[in-house]
Amino acid sequence: MSEPPAVSVDGLVMRYADKVAVDELSLTVERHTITAVLGPNGAGKTTTLETCEGYRKPHRGTVRVLGLDPVADRRDLHPRIGVMLQGGGAWSGVRAMEMLRHVAKLHAHPLDVDMLAERVGLGDCGRTPYRRLSGGQQQRLGLALALVGRPEVVFVDEPTAGMDPQARRTTWALLQELRGDGVTVVLTTHYMEEAERLADQIHIIDHGRLVASGSPLDLTRGGSVTTIRLVVTRPFPPGSPASLRTALGEAIEVVQLDELSLLVTGPADASTLAKVSRWCEDNGVLPESLTLGQRNLEDVFLELTGRELAP
Ligand SMILES: Nc1ncnc2c1ncn2[C@@H]1O[C@H](COP(=O)(O)OP(=O)(O)OP(=O)(O)O)[C@@H](O)[C@H]1O
């Protein structure tokens, strides 16, 4: 029999009082991958992760991690997973290395804590109390705490939030190294670049629902699709997206980003650019800029939800 996937979520519904935070969500995370759950603030990413980690019980649907029920099989599952919580999850007065040593002792075969501290870049702040660590250092400690028990699956919630660009790159390299060692990494992020660079598989969620899944390449369709961004000097006349779409033809999508900009997506080329320019002239619209580019995940998200991904 083949081994179960790292994570399988099937028809998950999660509610806070009357609010539906996760709405019939189904997704699979294959082993030995980096999988990103991507979505804007409030999309339901943390709630989904916390359910996989066994901190919340599904209101409906099922969740399995390494084939186990995170709540009912908690004792068997917990030694096999690592969890990096949003906001660190350490006591405020404890020193970074004390905390790491303490957690290491709870595991049967922990990693060497000094090596791990060095690797995540905790280096010279090991004696600093948790509350005095910078946001980025708290994140690094959180990551070390998640990894010290040699987990098979590691859940990391917004691993690079609050990190400077260099620390972010170090963290990306570390997560890639983990995948190389056979660990499955499940991360949430609202950084499109993070998902695009790191993930083998991306699940985009919005309002608790899955809106798209695939590899970064699948989702951006191999770069054969281009975008045109049109920014204008005065608000568009009413009905502009529909009128522009009619002018450009069937295969082209037009999304209004805000009152002064539109995004055109599809098999666009120089002739499409010329048509957009002509449409502007015919409709008394004065372009401030008109740029042709490759479609990226941010554009995919915009098309799917009509909203920007970045907070
Ligand atoms: N404890 C709670 N009580 C009530 N509502 C909650 C609670 N936790 C989350 N929510 C709501 O559920 C929805 C999903 O929240 P969740 O934190 O899962 O989203 P998220 O995608 O992780 O967002 P973020 O990127 O901001 O962390 C949001 O509308 C949020 O306000």
Task: List the topology elements.
Layout lengths: L6 E10 L2 E11 L4 E5 L6 H8 L7 E6 L8 H4 L3 E4 L11 H10 L7 H8 L14 H13 L5 E5 L7 H16 L3 E6 L2 H7 L2 E6 L2 E6 L1 H4 L6 E7 L7 H9 L4 E6 L2 E6 L3 H13 L4 E8 L2 H9 L6
Parallel strand pairs: 3-7, 3-8, 5-6, 6-7
Antiparallel strand pairs: 1-2, 1-4, 8-9, 10-12, 10-13, 11-12
Bound molecules: adenosine-5'-triphosphate.
Write structural notes for this entry.
It is built from 11 helices and 13 strands. It is elongated and about 70 Å long. It has 311 residues and is α/β, with parallel strands linked by helices. The chain is 32% helix and 28% strand. Helix 4 crosses helix 5. The strands form 3 sheets. Strands 5-6-7-3-8-9 form a 6-stranded mixed β-sheet, sandwiched between helices. Strands 11-12-10-13 form a 4-stranded antiparallel β-sheet, sandwiched between helices. A 3-stranded antiparallel β-sheet has the order 2-1-4, covered by helices on one side. It folds into 2 domains: 7-216, P-loop containing nucleotide triphosphate hydrolases (Rossmann fold, 3-Layer(aba) Sandwich); 221-295, ACT domain (Alpha-Beta Plaits, 2-Layer Sandwich), CATH 3.30.70.260. Bound molecules: adenosine-5'-triphosphate (ATP). The site of adenosine-5'-triphosphate (ATP) has 12 residues, from strand 2 and helix 1.
Number of domains: 2
The CATH topology name of the largest domain reads Rossmann fold
Query: Structural class, from secondary structure content?
Result: alpha/beta
Number of β-strand runs? 13
The top-level CATH class of the largest domain is: Alpha Beta
User: What is the straight-line distance between the termini?
Assistant: 44 Å
Q: Which sequence of strands runs across the widest sheet?
A: 5-6-7-3-8-9
CATH architecture of the largest domain: 3-Layer(aba) Sandwich
Instruction: Report the biggest beta sheet as strand number plus sense, adding barrel if it closes.
Output: 6 strands, mixed
Q: Helix content range of the residues, please?
A: 25-40%
Please, how many helices? Answer: 11
Radius of gyration, CA atoms, in whole angstroms = 22 Å
Q: List the ions, cofactors and other small molecules found in this model.
A: adenosine-5'-triphosphate
